[in-house]
User: What shape does this take?
Amino acid sequence: MVTPLFLAPIIGNLEYPEAESTPQKFSERMKVFEHIYESRENLPQIIFNNILIFTVGFAAAVVVHLLVKAKFPK
Assistant: This one.
């Protein structure tokens, strides 16, 4: 699973609730950021997919809204 960059510190704190930080824990946390950095080639496809999902969801909401408006006129 790829952790979004803004969630990585939160998930890191959930995985390691104690305040102390050892070099091993630091290297485990850095692996998340390294994976995100290495997968940056996929970023345009991810952005396109997110825009597509948003557009399809918005269109579905408009269709449902129009159907409800037609079924229950004021």
